[in-house]
């Protein structure tokens, strides 16, 4: 059995404060784009997101920061190497291939 772990590649996090401000915009399209931009910055944005989350008082901002944090820290397991390669290429994320002789944590 082959189990594949998708990891998010680290990227630069320039302009984080401006993006974080847009997460609280009155315009939902601006908020959605800011969330997408923040996630695109990659794993290096995680410390800044956590710091902003600790200080955030606005419910909308907290929710969007939590979504970004989840998107950047979530590890996805896949059992289909071909599918994982397609996802990795589409999302520009590296693969970690873990080979076992049986199910991982009870997964088959």
The order of strands across the largest sheet is 2-1-3
Helix content: 40-55%
Question: What value does the average pLDDT take?
Answer: 77
Proportion of β residues?
A: 5-15%
SSE run: EHHHHEHE
Task: Briefly say what this structure is.
This protein is of the alpha+beta class. Helix content is 52%, strand content 12%. The chain has one domain (2-99).
Blueprint (SSEs and pairs):
Layout: E1 2-6, H1 16-22, H2 28-40, H3 46-55, H4 59-73, E2 76-78, H5 81-91, E3 95-99
Antiparallel strand pairs: 1-2, 1-3
Helix pairs in contact: 1-2, 2-4, 3-4
Features:
alpha+beta; 108 residues; single chain; elongated; 3 strands
Q: Care to describe what's here?
A:
There is one protein chain. This protein is α+β, with helices and mostly antiparallel strands and 108 residues long. The chain has one domain. The protein contains 5 helices and 3 strands; from the N terminus they run βααααβαβ. It has helices at residues 16-22, 28-40, 46-55, 59-73, 81-91, and strands spanning 2-6, 76-78, 95-99. A 3-stranded antiparallel sheet has the order 2-1-3, covered by helices on one side. Helix 1 packs antiparallel against helix 2 (28-40), helix 2 (28-40) packs parallel to helix 4 and helix 3 (46-55) packs antiparallel against helix 4 (59-73). The radius of gyration is 16 Å and the shape is elongated.
